[in-house]
Amino acid sequence: MIEITLPDGAKKKVQQGATPMDVAKSISEGLARNVISAKFNDTTVETTTPLTIDGTLTLYTWNTDDGKKAFWHSSSHVLAQALEELYPGIKLTIGPAIENGFYYDVDFGEHHISEKDFPEIEKKALEIARGKHDYKMREVSKADALSYYKQQANEYKVELIENLEDGTITFCDHSTFTDLCRGGHIPNTGIIKAFKVLSVAGAYWRGDENNKQLTRVYGISFPKQKELTEYLHLLEEAKKRDHRKLGRELELFTFSQKVGQGLPLWLPKGAALRERLESFLKKAQKKAGYEMVVTPHIGQKELYVTSGHYAKYGEDSFQPIHTPKEDEEFLLKPMNCPHHCEIYNHGHFSYKDLPKRFAEFGTVYRYEQSGELHGLTRVRGFTQDDAHIFCTPEQLNEEFKKVIDLSLYVLTSLGFDNFTAQVSVRDLDKPEKYIGEAENWEKAEQAIINAAEEKGLNFVVETGEAAFYGPKLDFMIKDALGRKWQLGTIQVDYNLPERFDLTYKGSDNELHRPIMIHRAPFGSMERFVALLLEHTGGNFPLWLIPDQAIVLPVSEKHEKYAEKVLSSLENNEIRALIDNRNETVGKKIREAELKKIPFMLVVGEQEEASETIAVRRHGGEDLGSVSIEQFSDLVTTEINSTLKSF
């Protein structure tokens, strides 16, 4: 007998060789009907995997993230088999599950596929799925694995196998199909009831531009047709909310090939929106004791070597800038933290001076491959709302909690009310990924967990997701479409103070190392605006939106009164404009609706005579005729109800 520990701490004695499915059946028939994957001692396994030692077992259904991952990974095999049968001679490479669905990278050789081929691929995939073929894992030697793929002339799989350690390698079989795979599948293909090919794109082998470009086929699958229908509806809604589309329609930002890919140009309305976001955060930061600093856009290469960023981001950095006479090497700034360390080093601080809180809206640069660029969410130049707090060990807990408070204030003020927290810690099995002493890592990880618990956050701990220099806490928000995004990073860092020899004089008159907290509630201005656009559909909070109202004169003879109304609104600090084109009021209203302007103020003969405005809210609600003062009070009240003081 072996002892199995379940997630709730319950223990079960089962026969050696029992499977996760056997354990599920021993709990309930309902669970057994729904379980599709499992994790045993931190390794993803099939429900048919024999369990031979004591361990911890987690059972996954479709309703769990890990269950979906296994479902979609299994579906990628079905996609690969369908493609092989439809296009003989293709070479399969890799096919992982992703956040929503899966993809398979394929060398199609002489074949080419496009959207018109999707229905045929889907038909073939569902035909395979209906066969209810079991997923069976088997071990092979490295030599046999190499021989198998060399016979198929698949140099991609050969390269993958050659890079694996010597020993046994696993293949996955279902039906007549075989693939190189670590495992983590659903019981059989029959569970896949709905299958959709979403798109195709180019992708370099192993993400390297110097390698051959493959075809990446994206897909998604579900255990019920209804869920696919709902997902496709969600996709259509997402297209309407695409920040690239809305940014263009609302005249917020643009891109220019002459300026360069991944380098956004902020138009007047977008720049004003950014300025309001910055002012909002600066005001809260000032109350929280932050001091604003400014650092240059470049720094000596040696600065980033010292910080460790060059070793980590060297490949993602632009080429160094060389000075012709001094032969110095400068880099476009990839991070603000090294500069802030040097600002701290400028002073001579005692424990009485700490904490020091330096904040900056600093623009940084990373080289992203052109295929990875995406609107404002993946760019080559972006502005971070960066701040670094230098504190004593005794201050760490309190300072971290204050940063949590600030992050929560930012998120809730902007309508992100649905979120969880994620504490990202080291993967102890991969120490080479991180810098710094293990003892300091342990202190930092515990400090974050303690602060999160004391603030009552709903959080999960994710192993292996820490930054290379320290653990972190991220807020994982869920937007209006139910998609998850990471915002509001807070990190504890013992390493940079060591690398930059940062010190303060303690009460014992000796020098000590401060602890550094990194934080960025927005993350980057570009990405935050993109998420905010898609979350709100362009209907920004009233305090933030570029144009709060538009005055619509009924005819030319009412323009003078319309100008008077506009002037009064501006005097009341309401952002408004006027549409005095020779068009019907109906057309003006329709166009104002498309521009997401919250209030349309119609002025005609009756309004001019009574010195009022006829107010129509975005979406069609008629608020009737009111005085300008009453309207100003309405706007102020609405803003105050959503924008609380920090």
From TrEMBL:
What is the protein name stated in its UniProt record? Threonine--tRNA ligase
According to the record, how does the cofactor bind? Answer: Binds 1 zinc ion per subunit.
**PANTHER family according to UniProt:** THREONINE--TRNA LIGASE, CHLOROPLASTIC_MITOCHONDRIAL 2, THREONINE-TRNA LIGASE
- Known cofactor(s): Zn(2+)
Chief location of this protein within or outside the cell: cytoplasm
Which gene does this sequence derive from?
thrS
Q: Where does Zn(2+) bind?
A: C337, H388, H518
Q: What is the lineage of its organism?
A: Bacteria, Pseudomonadati, Bacteroidota, Flavobacteriia, Flavobacteriales
Q: Which organism is it from?
A: Flagellimonas allohymeniacidonis
What keywords does the record list, in alphabetical order?
Aminoacyl-tRNA synthetase, ATP-binding, Cytoplasm, Ligase, Metal-binding, Nucleotide-binding, Protein biosynthesis, RNA-binding, tRNA-binding, Zinc
Q: Where in the cell is it found?
A: Cytoplasm
The EC number(s) attached to this protein equal 6.1.1.3
Assembly, in brief, is:
Homodimer.
Aminoacyl-transfer RNA synthetases class-II family profile domain location is 242-553
Which domain of life does the UniProt lineage start with? Bacteria
